[in-house]
Amino acid sequence: MFQELSDKLDLVVKKIRGQGKITDKNIASSLKEVRRVLLEADVNYKVAKSFIASVQERAMGQEVLRSVTPGQQIVKIIYDELTHIMGDKDVPLNLTGSLPHIIMLNGLQGSGKTTLAGKLALNLKKSGKKPLLVGADVQRPAAIKQLEIVGENVGVPVIGDASKSPVKNCSDAITYAKKNGFDVVILDTAGRLHIDKTLMEELKSIKDVTKPGEILFVADGMTGQDAVNTAKEFLNWIDFDGIVLTKMDGDARGGAALSIRMVTGKPIKFISIGEKFDALELFHPDRMASRILGMGDVVTLVEKAQQTVDQEKAAKLEHKLRRQEFTLEDFYDQLQQIKKMGPLDQLLGMMPGMNKNMMKGISVDDRAFVKVEAIINSMTPEERRRPQVINGSRRKRISLGSGTSVQDVNQLLKQFQMMQKMMKNINKFNLKGMFR
Predict the structure, then answer these.
(1) Among 219-233, 336-350, 420-434, which stretch is predicted with the lowest mean pLDDT?
(2) N- to C-terminal Cα separation, the chain
(3) Beta-strand runs (E) in 73-193
(4) 43 Cβ partners below 8 Å, 6+ apart?
(5) 37 with 382: CB under 8 angstroms?
(6) What span, in angstroms and rounded, lies between the C-alpha atoms of 295 and 55?
């Protein structure tokens, strides 16, 4: 996420940190570089101009001039201003008022509304809500069928009839939700390849009839300024409450995230960071600023761990580690829990200082998990518990069963032996609380 922007800013930030003395000349030079990086990331030029002016004003103030480490202080100012232009603080969904809560999704065709509807439904379901998905797109062929497949994947029912008007679909769904105890209704509305009057009038009619408590504009984060310009147009027609940026795990340059809030005045509420339905994050401006500046995002990393780690299994693992009984079965269980946290490159990106330069030579290929899983699954229960019994003939059988080479099996066993030795060393210290 924002890797190119982060890498370029990292080079500028390193120069600034190295400044022992702050002068008008080196401040101007550094901020000129920052401005260039922002514009290359497709940040709105007015936002970039305002950002540089704010940083320069604070950088030449007494707070920096009197600082023991002026370079570090300026980096802090850049961090503060990045946080500010993205919204200062997170803004959760507005789920107040009478039930059911109505959430209306708007955006152009291809922005990812239907997939987002499923992600949002799953997110709400996990938080104890009972959501209902509504297919309000009768224009695009098989749009409702697509939503039904999404609903099936996340375990959320879908209401929609291609023979009815979008407004009728939405009003009928709300009536159904009230009768059947659904507390959140998510309206997946139609989009177009570009903004037109017919679409906007349709959306206004749905808004007037359903009176949603939350209207979200869904923007493709990879389209940069195009997403910002489209948001402005939608805002003129439909006064939405917040923004969701999709496809943020791709090659997004960062322009949309750094511009859209300042241009529209509306908060970014969520970012979609992957294809899986649980790949949806509440948007935290301060954490995003930290990621962009290569400072990591330890808080989100910890939250992901808390959501995925099985506490009962963690307690059993702690007990086994104390008794030096760590087996390949335990190793397999740990791999499964790491996989649930998300792609490895995203997890590494949340660790402070893990930019592209730091990660050179480090393999973050998630397919390596598949190979390891196949090898372990090809072992007998005894072999997993006591890998020392795996002789030459067993290694050959395991490699054939897993579709890998004997060398792959040998490498895994060698790595596991090294891990066991490491665990013995760790056991010398207090393990309490390490896995919980």
Answers:
(1) 420-434
(2) 28
(3) 101-106, 131-136, 158-159, 184-189
(4) 51, 254, 255, 258, 259
(5) no
(6) 19
Question: In 10 A of CB 371, how many CB atoms?
Answer: 18
> Rounded CA gap, 321 and 326, in Å?
6
* Separation between Cα atoms, residue 193 and residue 138, nearest integer Å: 15
Task: Report the run of H or E that residue 272 belongs to, with start and end.
Answer: strand 268-272
Closest CA to 283 of 257, 306, 253, 250: 257
Distant-in-sequence, close-in-space partners of 15: CB < 8 Å, separation ≥ 6: 30, 33
- Give the domains, in start order, of the chain with CATH numbers: 3-85 (1.20.120.140), 101-295 (3.40.50.300), 302-426 (1.10.260.30)
State the Cα angle at 114 between 278 and 222, rounded to 5°. Answer: 80
* Measured CA angle at 287 (ends 283, 292), to 5 deg: 105
Supply 80's token pair.
């503060």
Count each helix (H run) and each strand (E run) in the chain, helices first: 20, 8
CB contact at 8 A, 304 and 341: yes
pLDDT for 308-322, tens place per residue?
Answer: 555 565 555 555 555
The answer to whether the CB of 289 falls within 8 A of the CB of 79 is yes
pTM equals: 0.68
* pLDDT over 70 (residue 359): no
**Coarse DSSP helix, strand, coil percentages of the chain, rounded to the nearest 5 percent:** 55, 10, 35
- Can you read off the two tokens belonging to residue 285? 């401006």
